[in-house]
Amino acid sequence: MSTGANVDPGELAKFSALAHRWWDPTSEFRPLHEINPLRLGHIETLVGGLAGKRVLDVGCGGGILSEAMAVRGARVTGIDLAEKPLKVAMLHRLETGVEVDYRLVPAEQIADEMPAAFDVVTCMEMLEHVPDPASIVRACARAVKPGGWVFFATINRNPKSFLFAIVGAEYVLGLLPRGTHEYAKFITPSELARHGRAAGLAQAGLAGMTYNPITKVYAIGADVGVNYILATRRDV
């Protein structure tokens, strides 16, 4: 792992402390388990299927999305800078036999080592946890092939997102541990799209992820007020 990585030690410690619970669908990571089929389906629909494609999962954590994409036939490399969650991902790989190449390496470094090597790059629920999200966007753009897809999932910054993502999810409903998110680190879709354009990524889709606290059901739709997924393609 290179020095000077684009990482917040406090954020690494936060997720490392919960690493052993990553694959428990009733734990603090329940939301990730519940939204995973939705975001996986969204990605597959846009890219025309994952089978045979080379995929980089940036900020893979315990490997929930990485494994799911590998099951669909992708050749997946999962990277993270939190060592404990990455070890959990490796242990789960042994249990399931699903092939994923996990590496403890910054996105910027793998982009330097493997430029234009991937058909698809995913960066889910990570940008709001790093000091310099624009650097991650640039790294993802360098790692993907010309014409390839890059997906970013993060949280909008507005009064609604503060109410739902922090007050509601962390303090009222208990969907996430308190302190998981910092409002100041949230990113608006326009800011993220601007980072993408500066890195040579053109917006190719924008969808929201919503949660109904009554039915306890997640859905993908047009409401990007809180959680959203920005799909981009690298300029050819």
Automatic annotation (TrEMBL):
Keywords annotated in UniProt: Methyltransferase, S-adenosyl-L-methionine, Transferase, Ubiquinone, Ubiquinone biosynthesis
Pathway: Cofactor biosynthesis; ubiquinone biosynthesis
EC number(s) recorded for this UniProt protein: 2.1.1.222, 2.1.1.64
GO molecular function term, any single one: 3-demethylubiquinol 3-O-methyltransferase activity
Signal peptide: none
HAMAP family: UbiG
Similarity annotation: Belongs to the methyltransferase superfamily. UbiG/COQ3 family.
Name of this chain's protein: Ubiquinone biosynthesis O-methyltransferase
Lineage of the organism: Bacteria, Pseudomonadati, Pseudomonadota, Betaproteobacteria, Nitrosomonadales
Name of the gene encoding the protein in the UniProt record: ubiG
